[in-house]
Design brief:
alpha/beta
């Protein structure tokens, strides 16, 4: 069975949830995707980058935790609605940009700052009715000097099985991709896949059910 580009490379017959519930990022005592942000830090240190741009930051708990341990980091969080309003009202560090990842084509950031950055988009794409603009924004940032992007999303084949054709159990998720579907989706954009693997879903025994992709720019190809 092939993938359907019109369904964002899901298998034909998949049922998405439209509209999803707005995801309010409230601490429930579980650390979700506990290894994603540490991986972002490793990449920032390896490439001597000091800016973390978090697309879909929520209330930015894991992002701010990086800066608490490494005060030299500059943080940029991107989200909309109550989550970004909470960040602006409650977080003493960071720059908080209000942007809808389904419509934003650029961000108000200088080239020098982007060139010092690593991007993270952790378990965000599955919340978007149309995830393509967010991927184009990632490509735009990579094209302007960001060294790499770390993207994660649930692996449906590991959580519900390949035969599950939606909608997802989580009411704030529009869709969830299997690993082969998500690779096909990512490969439809002009960014180089440097790594594609599984990571822990949470720190409470959820297992290796989240897929993690590290993207780099395609040399010589502009995405703007």
């Amino acid at each position: 069975m092939g993938f359907d580009p019109d369904l964002h490379y899901l298998r034909p017959g998949y049922t998405s949830r439209v509209p999803p519930e707005y995801f309010v990022d409230i601490d429930d005592g579980i650390t979700w995707q506990p290894d994603v942000y540490p991986e972002v830090l490793v990449l920032a240190q390896r490439h001597d980058r000091s800016v973390i741009i978090d697309l879909g930051c929520g209330r930015a708990g894991k992002l701010v935790a990086l800066a608490e341990q490494h005060p030299h980091l500059d943080l940029v969080g991107v989200d909309f609605g109550p989550n970004i309003e909470w960040c602006r009202a409650n977080l003493p560090v960071g720059r908080w940009l209000d942007a809808d990842l389904e419509t934003a084509t650029t961000l108000p950031l200088g080239t020098e700052m982007i060139a010092r950055s690593v991007i993270v988009c952790s378990d965000v794409l599955e919340h978007l009715v149309d995830p393509r603009p967010a991927m184009r924004l990632i490509c735009w940032l990579l094209d302007r000097g960001a060294v790499c992007a770390v993207v994660s999303t649930p692996a449906r084949d590991k959580r519900a099985g390949t035969e599950n054709l939606g909608p997802p159990a989580n009411p704030s998720h529009v869709r969830e991709w299997t690993q082969d579907e998500f690779r096909a989706f990512v490969e439809s954009f002009p960014a180089a896949i440097e790594r594609f693997e599984l990571t822990r879903s949470d720190d409470s025994g959820g297992g290796m059910t989240t897929q993690l992709v590290v993207l780099g720019p395609c040399k010589g190809q502009r995405t703007g």
